Amino acid sequence: MAKLTEIGWEEFEALSPEAKRPYLENPDGGGLPYHTLFAQQFDRAALERLCALANRIRFINKSKEGALYLKNVLAHKRAMLYFSQPSSRTFLSHLAACQILGITTGSVRDAATSSEFKGESHEDSIRTFSSYFDMIIMRSPERGLAEKMAWELSNSERPIPILNAGSGKDQHPTQALLDIYTLVRSFENKGGIDGRTVTFCGDLMRGRTVRSLSHLLTNFRDVRQIFVAPPELQVPADVVMALAKKGVSFEVMDSLKEATKVSDAVYMTRIQDEWDQAKGESAKIDTSHFKFGAEELALLRPDAIIMHPLPRRDEIATCCDHDPRAMYWRQMRNGMWIRAALIAATFGFERTIMECGY
Amino acid sequence: MAKLTEIGWEEFEALSPEAKRPYLENPDGGGLPYHTLFAQQFDRAALERLCALANRIRFINKSKEGALYLKNVLAHKRAMLYFSQPSSRTFLSHLAACQILGITTGSVRDAATSSEFKGESHEDSIRTFSSYFDMIIMRSPERGLAEKMAWELSNSERPIPILNAGSGKDQHPTQALLDIYTLVRSFENKGGIDGRTVTFCGDLMRGRTVRSLSHLLTNFRDVRQIFVAPPELQVPADVVMALAKKGVSFEVMDSLKEATKVSDAVYMTRIQDEWDQAKGESAKIDTSHFKFGAEELALLRPDAIIMHPLPRRDEIATCCDHDPRAMYWRQMRNGMWIRAALIAATFGFERTIMECGY
Amino acid sequence: MAKLTEIGWEEFEALSPEAKRPYLENPDGGGLPYHTLFAQQFDRAALERLCALANRIRFINKSKEGALYLKNVLAHKRAMLYFSQPSSRTFLSHLAACQILGITTGSVRDAATSSEFKGESHEDSIRTFSSYFDMIIMRSPERGLAEKMAWELSNSERPIPILNAGSGKDQHPTQALLDIYTLVRSFENKGGIDGRTVTFCGDLMRGRTVRSLSHLLTNFRDVRQIFVAPPELQVPADVVMALAKKGVSFEVMDSLKEATKVSDAVYMTRIQDEWDQAKGESAKIDTSHFKFGAEELALLRPDAIIMHPLPRRDEIATCCDHDPRAMYWRQMRNGMWIRAALIAATFGFERTIMECGY
What we know:
The structure is a homotrimer of 358-residue chains. Chain A folds into 2 domains: 4-172 and 334-355, Aspartate/ornithine carbamoyltransferase (Rossmann fold, 3-Layer(aba) Sandwich); 173-331, Rossmann fold. Chain A is 41% helix and 12% strand. The first copy, chain A, has 15 helices and 9 strands. Chain A has a 5-stranded parallel beta sheet, with helices on both faces. In chain A, strand 6 (224-228), helix 11 and strand 7 form a beta-alpha-beta unit. In chain A, helix 3 crosses helix 9 (173-186). The radius of gyration of chain A is 20 Å and the shape is globular. The mean pLDDT of chain A is 93. Chains in contact: A-B, A-C, B-C. Chains A and B meet through helix 4, helix 5 and helix 14 of A and strand 2, helix 6 and helix 7 of B.
């Protein structure tokens, strides 16, 4: 197994995501991650094992006895949630995942408190957290920071795992995991993800969830991807190139209605105007045709599902909320389960939970 | 039993508090609340059961074994404390109540973090919390929001209870519960609340605690209410009318000293100048005769008590603090016990705790 | 035993630290503190017992079984972390210490939330916390506040212990404890602290850690203290006088290199420019000769150690970080263990833990 202690930072940083992967694996040899940094770490086998573990945890948690069993699994561990870029949704979901497994937590989540650490280097701050906790779950606006910290910690006297809960614009691996888990659950007794058609709609240029999920779907067979967006916000060339390279079938379409008719899953996204370079840039774009409402719902196949990473604005009309195919609420809750699975696996407890008597 | 799933929001909203009550009851049929929204939900039987449960929890918690037993009762549950209007006192009290029962918690309590949710509708935010937690304890400046959320959640695929920890100017039901619990405890072996005289003094116009407690006291027999306040801050007409309608005896008085002489409980309140419509409005009012000091203490009956919802400014002189009749510190701690009782009852654990071996 | 209930506040406040000590002891008679307010409370016997307890906790915590045992020791207690002066490092360390022992916690740690309490007196705020919690861990910019609060609480109907996590410029007793614990651990099998030479370098005038540690070292035999600093930031006269009075050997030196050669421990500190009286005052001081780098490392004895209370700026070059003599990371983690020991002792669980079967 490749070890982060046997490679310098610059050398490691220069590797491709695929080449980095073995360095991030759990030393227990099971093939699941120790540090979770980017979506490309997960192959189909890892995804399926995590989804199975998430299912198991969800099932065990239904009874009080099961819930109390789970709360004991990692009751000897403590995790630090270091959110220098606030995000209550992602924060609460990771917190809940920790709580399910009995992990106690500390947190830094507002700018005022975290500004304290500005006087010192990131490396020193992270080593502070590693002094008191057994895992760091971090979200940062700084691209690549989680990766650097993982390398630093693995090369310290107190190596502990890093879980990237979003770094910069590029990576948010647990969001991709929960999207996959939602698809896996939705098609569980219906033949699985292979051969499905997934439509992405909205701001495909700037949404990192689209990028990650699009990549993870290439782990499955014959999944067709459709991209529906205003021309200014269409899927970036590198995503399309990556699909083309792998021989994955994809299509760029103008009409959400047409795409809906042929889709097994419609993945709606919000216009991410917080990344606008000129003020009001997004407001000038006509996005009116990229919203899912009653008409689209009428065209949606009976078995198909609607997804959204949330929060939403008006991309999905509230009249869809109670339709059984509206999967976005459950998708959110799936995030809690898959994160609990990931954390349990990180600490080497996959088998313990899979084989327990509950 | 009436069900929130069988009534539309507009229709429900238009009902009187009394008519709303059955919709909020615990489906276990025991008559205690599932959603706790307003003080009018509690009749005498419910109040007495909650006080008995609070007494029981308080007693069990005295020994380490008992405390550990309680920490197991709801160890499989997680609660969200969503305080978009900060209030550390109420926050900490609910937190402590959860901790006593073993509930793990997540929280949003500062404006900076909660502003994140501004982009989305309240409904979506609350559904986010309901994805990760088993109960929402919420405080909001927005009148009626807790009620709307309770209806929404009961009509979602993941119904969970709402506990209103203060909404707008009007409702703060658990404050009223702790006031009643304090009176119940204080007169426990002295014949109870029936037939007592309770004086309210201070800003009776804008204090929601006065409004709620005044109402709850009508559940008891022959309780006489006295209102002492500057003319500008006297008790509002609707409160007085409600008492008159129920044939409850009340009196408006000018002199705190005279009222003190005849009272079993003197309930002091702070001038709530944060609600001033013109700046400095309250400062112009002569409040000097509406403060409890050494002279009033000398007039207070030996068995009577002094209450205050806290925080105080100078409404009660600190020279009263160590008098055994100063009940305001214990009143605060009572808030923790009665909230623990309410939460345990909400999850259907009243009987379990009442009948346990501790 | 002296009791805080038997002495007035003014009388108590006027006592010397030594005379105050007996008033702060644990009523169990064991000689360890109930209220922890200042470093002078700890004599050699108390220091050695706390270090032994910290060692024990650290050892027990290594196995999952041990960790779960510890999490049960104080699972019936709840602590309030009241940080009106934010400090995430100290906060997280105390939090972790509580979590190790199973204590559940509540916190106020940001200015926005704590500002709420500004309307009321400190006494009322602290009594609020004492209503809901079993211990208050507090940090405040206000000199002497922790002491006042300890007196107030001990004279209330609900006395609970205060742990001072830093008050004003003067006292930060648990930092001094962790420094001593680090020295104890480092020289554990090498003859202990007696007879060692400790060099303090940097801003010795304004660093309260220097003041406290210098004092605590006088509990040991023949410890020589060396002070290396720019003339403007040299150790204050009162510290030097106190040493002289006790007949403790000390030296003021100009050269960190010379001091390093003869030291068993080099304690580096940051320039505390946040206390500058004129803006940029510190920036005018030539501090270039008071930094520990590669050259100093080369001169450091093989058995000697480098310490730093952290956060650091550039007082220690990062090239020292992986040297086995760089003790500052472990020093930070030691803070967690010694605080856990202190808290366990405060609640009277020293013997339970020392004698448990793990």
